[in-house]
């Protein structure tokens, strides 16, 4: 069995901890510190044109801020606007901790993060 290096970035920081969930100073560690929360839209993948991407990201952020905590209403609003703007058959998924494998029309897919959740938007007809 190979030894694990201390410099592995995928391992939790256990230095100074007795394994009881407390930091060296005796304070309880907060597991949410490990999650990154983005206050700006982070586009992970898209094949949209630059103009459509900018408009879509702005629209997604607007509706997510308009419907805080209500992913279903935000997704429905985004879908309706995209159906009117770019034709029918748009699909929107908003949530935390999901993977995807989809079939979509070329130049019509966007995957981004905003705040603590992911947004997947694609067109399939």
Descriptive report:
There is one protein chain. This protein is of the alpha+beta class and 125 residues long. It is 26% helix and 23% strand. The protein is built from two helices and four strands. Strands 1-3-4-2 form a four-stranded antiparallel beta sheet. β3 and β4 form a beta hairpin. It is globular. The protein starts with 37 loop residues before the first strand and ends with a strand.
Compact overview of the structure:
The protein is α+β, with helices and mostly antiparallel strands and 125 residues long.
Instruction: Assess the beta-strand content as a share of residues.
Output: 15-25%
What would the principal axes of the Cα set say about the shape?
Answer: globular
Count the helices. How many? Answer: 2
CA radius of gyration is: 20 Å
Order of strands across the widest beta sheet? 1-3-4-2
Distance between the amino and carboxyl termini: 50 Å
How would you state the average pLDDT, rounded?
80
Secondary structure category: alpha+beta
Q: How many E-type strands?
A: 4
Question: Percent of residues in helical segments?
Answer: 25-40%
Order of helices and strands: EHHEEE
**Uncertain runs with pLDDT below 50, 5 residues or more?**
1-25
